[in-house]
Amino acid sequence: MGKYIIEGGYSLSGEIKVQGSKNAVLPLLAATVLNEGKTYFHNCPKILDVYNMLNILTSIGCTIEWDGDVLIIDSSDITTHIIPEKYVQMMRSSIILLGSVLGRLKTVKISFPGGCSIGTRPIDLHLKALKQMNVDIKDRHGFIECSTNEIIGNKVSLDYPSVGATENIMLTAVLSEGITTINNAAKEPEIVELQEFLCEMGAKIEGAGTDTITIKGVNKLKSVEYRIMPDRIVAGTYMCAVAAAGGEVLLKDVCKEHLNSTITKINEMGCFTKEFEDSILIKAPERLKSLDLIRTQPYPGFPTDMQAQLMSCLVTADGTSIIAETIFESRYKHVAELVRMGADIIIDGRIAVLKGVNRLNGAEVFAEDLRGGAALVLAGLGAEGKTIVNNASHILRGYENLEKDLSLLGAKIKYSSD
Fold first, then answer.
1. pLDDT in tens, 274-291
2. How far is 4 from 385, CA to CA, in rounded Å?
3. Are 404 and 10 in contact (CB under 8 A)?
4. What is the pLDDT of residues 308-352, one digit of tens each?
5. Least CB-packed of 4, 67, 90, 269 within 10 Å?
6. Does residue 121 have a known ligand-binding role?
7. Do the annotations mark residue 414 as ligand-binding?
8. What is the pLDDT of residues 146-183, one digit of tens each?
9. Which residue in 44, 116, 271, 313 is the catalytic one?
10. pLDDT reading at 198 higher than 60
11. Backbone angles phi, psi at 201, to 5 degrees
12. What is the pLDDT of residues 113-125, one digit of tens each?
């Protein structure tokens, strides 16, 4: 499972480039199934989730090739509609293949997804929408089987602005007959990225980033070359790393518009930030300030994917902070490990009350999920002594060069596969 070994107490300085977006690239990889040609990706992060998705694409007939840092996918010949269960169980986001394979072949068989256990993420919103688009759905022994003679566009209203459901509906509708309208659609930047990518391939979609997305079905897509946007969660993680460890760092290749809610909280904690065209400078104060209330919300609110990392900063802030996790009910699994390091945290349902302590102490801790694992690494950077973060495979799902990037900034951190 691997582990990170961190010697805390070293401030960070220098500059690093932010990797391509994990949450954007996975639906884009799924979308290549719709294209009966080649796709060339630039800035694709080399992370575990990407490799798992590429394994799935290979298993259904795609050809994968790396030419330096360029990822080339040839989806001319899709040989099966069955998604291998072993890969689906590795990550929940694999459910996004439901829409793309169905859109291409008009049939798909996929198991219910696995991945980080941060709470129930039911796919009933996905399936309810597909039924409205003339898709027959059967649930058999843990597998979802979808089939249709023709995908027909329809008006779909989501009960909740689910990112995954929005993406699956978009992918299903691209090659459909007629027009599909998604009401109460998710507004995340990754939705906009998916629209832009699909439109580059020849799809007709508009409205991404708003409540309403409209997809007009087309007959065929074309080959495309595309550069993946920077990862806003990785950028936010590195900002929190500076806040937790101290120092001054320039983050390059970022989209600052995607980081507004995170930057706001970073500034409220007393950090200094300066925004440039595609970079952000962050400087930490001697001690962070507490925050009265942080509530996770769908975009453009504060992202649930940044909750754990921000908590690693606030546990040593001056005063008491409150976090309300409104998205996932089981996203406090890192709390017990932070307490092991000396944090003072009380959990009451979805509310976390943090009383700032002067300093954390290094300890051996265990990552239970991707973002919680990253938060433990950040805690180790600011702690006194040695911290060992076990189960590092969770973190490798979303961070390409975490230990290398932090080492470049002066952190004492190494990865061990033992």
1. 999 999 999 999 999 999
2. 14
3. no
4. 999 999 999 999 999 999 998 778 999 999 999 999 999 999 999
5. 67
6. yes
7. no
8. 999 999 999 999 999 999 999 999 999 999 999 999 99
9. 116
10. yes
11. -80, -5
12. 754 444 445 688 9
258: DSSP letter: G
Q: Known binder of ligand: residue 122?
A: yes
Q: Is 161 annotated as a binding residue?
A: no
Percent of the chain with pLDDT over 90: 91
- What is the distance between the alpha carbons of residues 389 and 373, in angstroms, rounded to a whole number? 7
User: Which residues 6+ apart lie within 8 Å of 115 measured at CB?
Assistant: 89, 90, 91, 92, 93, 94
* CA-wise closest residue to 232 among 181, 192, 176: 192
- Structure confidence by residue, pLDDT tens digits, 346-394: 999 999 999 999 999 999 999 999 999 999 999 999 999 999 999 999 9
Q: Are 176 and 213 in contact (CB under 8 A)?
A: no
The whole-model pTM stands at: 0.96
**Is the Cα torsion angle 274, 278, 284, 289 positive or negative in sign?**
positive
Closest CA to 192 of 219, 166, 154: 166
* Residue at 348: amino acid letter: D
Active site residue 146: no
From CA 205, how far away is CA 27, in angstroms rounded?
15
Give every CB contact of residue 258 below 8 A, 6+ residues apart in sequence: 189, 229, 232, 235
Q: What is the pLDDT of residue 114?
A: 57
Mode of pairing for the β-strands spanning 412-416 and 364-366: unpaired
Nearest in space to 28 (alpha carbons), one of 224, 214, 234, 206: 224
CB within 8 A of 106, min separation 6: which ones? Answer: 147, 148, 149, 150, 151
pLDDT of residue 93: 84
137 labeled part of a ligand binding site:
no
Ranges of H-type helices in 41-181: 48-59, 85-88, 97-105, 124-131, 163-173
